[in-house]
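Progress note, sequence design subtask.
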């Protein structure tokens, strides 16, 4: 078993070289010359092994060390063991880096490692997509050369990272940047796409502003009439007129609240509905036809020529409440937003694409620029006409969410009011 070098082993090796020369010098004479020759022999032996060590370290690619003798055998073996340990550590380090990069690549955020002076050392796949970095081409690039935004420049230059920085990039994404210490002389920059969060927050603000507006208007009317009736006596005819108006405003609020509740229930429902319920669409349309005939006077006395073309055997699987609400909203949308005398045709039939619900009328239609936003909540093409007809801009939003749950779609054509609602055939 090999042992490590020590001063005792070195002394023994020196004695090994000098002892024969000492004995020969004593018996033969010329002791100094014999000792000099033995020392030169030891130096030559050591210089020779040094050259072998240098060739092995710098020229040869083999991991196997040269064969040594004496103390040099221990030295060669020790260096060989050190190389093996270093190679093992390098493999472990490479595996650790690979695991880190794999883990960082699966993170939902863009991760960039930079030096304290801003040069990029590494970035994950999401950083290449979100921040449009190129790897490994951008290795060593200064991050301010790639993200050219004054706010980001100030954020990095001031090095005050207690709070995140949110920017809208040129690709229209809103990104939140956070910087934290990573290791000596390095920072970890984490970028998160918050576009959807900002859009949802904007939608929430708009939604509450619209709800506030829609409820405040009828409440203001009711409050004004109540104060009028409380402050002074009114004639019977004026009172009746006021009561009719108050009833209309109360009905308007009731419809708004019911539609908000319906929309909330649809949005909160699972995206995949249990398709075990057989929905009898012909019965729903028959009930709707009787309802329209009974309340013609409630539509500002605007009479329409409404005809139904219904396949009485065509039923589908889905959610009855949601489908009934969607169909009712589409029908009343056609009735309320077309002038008197309009012809309205309602179709329920089987096509090659599935079950199709379609409404045709010969009204003035909708301009093409409004079509992409028709299913937004509270969006109305004409606010004045919507107030006149009692519309609140929630009907088509309910239709859109209902169809999403039923793997269907809504198609609205400009200038020719055709609203096909496709449902999977059951």
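Output:
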């Amino acid at each position: 078993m090999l042992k490590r070098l020590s001063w005792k082993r070195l002394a023994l090796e020196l004695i090994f070289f000098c002892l024969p020369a000492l004995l020969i010098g004593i018996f033969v004479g010329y002791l100094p010359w014999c000792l000099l020759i033995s020392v030169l022999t030891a130096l030559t032996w050591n210089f020779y092994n040094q050259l072998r060590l240098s060739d092995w370290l710098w020229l040869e690619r083999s991991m196997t060390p040269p064969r040594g003798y004496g103390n040099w055998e221990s030295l060669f073996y020790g260096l060989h063991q050190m190389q093996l340990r270093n190679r093992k550590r390098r493999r472990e380090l490479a595996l650790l880096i690979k695991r880190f990069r794999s883990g960082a690549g699966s993170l939902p955020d863009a991760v960039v490692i930079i030096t304290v002076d801003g040069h990029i050392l590494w970035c994950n796949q999401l950083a290449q997509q979100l921040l449009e970095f190129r790897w490994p081409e951008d290795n060593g690039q200064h991050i301010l050369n790639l993200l050219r935004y004054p706010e980001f420049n100030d954020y990095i230059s001031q090095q005050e990272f207690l709070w995140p920085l949110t920017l809208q990039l040129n690709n229209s994404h809103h990104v939140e940047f956070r910087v934290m210490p990573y290791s000596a002389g390095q920072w970890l920059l984490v970028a998160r796409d918050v576009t959807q969060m900002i859009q949802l927050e904007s939608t929430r603000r708009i939604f509450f502003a619209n709800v506030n507006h829609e409820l405040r208007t009828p409440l203001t009317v009711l409050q004004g009439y109540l104060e009028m009736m409380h402050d002074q006596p009114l004639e019977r005819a004026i009172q009746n007129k006021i009561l009719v108006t108050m009833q209309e405003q109360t009905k308007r609020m009731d419809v708004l609240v019911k539609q908000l509740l319906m929309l909330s229930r649809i949005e909160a429902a699972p995206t995949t509905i249990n398709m075990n319920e057989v929905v009898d669409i012909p019965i729903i349309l028959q009930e709707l036809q009787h309802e329209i005939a009974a309340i013609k006077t409630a539509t500002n006395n605007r009479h329409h020529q409404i005809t139904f073309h219904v396949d009485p055997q065509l039923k589908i699987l889905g959610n009855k409440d949601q489908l009934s609400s969607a169909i009712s909203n589409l029908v009343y949308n056609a009735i309320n937003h077309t002038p008197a005398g309009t012809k309205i045709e309602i179709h329920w039939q089987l096509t090659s694409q599935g079950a199709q619900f379609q409404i045709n009328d010969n009204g003035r239609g909708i301009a093409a620029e409004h079509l992409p936003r028709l299913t937004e909540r509270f969006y109305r093409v004409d606010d004045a006409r919507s107030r006149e007809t009692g519309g609140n801009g929630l009907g088509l939003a309910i239709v859109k969410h209902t169809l999403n749950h039923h793997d269907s779609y809504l198609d609205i054509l400009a200038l020719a009011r055709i609203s096909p609602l496709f449902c999977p055939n059951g």
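Confidence is low (pLDDT under 50) at residues 415-420. Work on this subtask will continue into the next period as scheduled.
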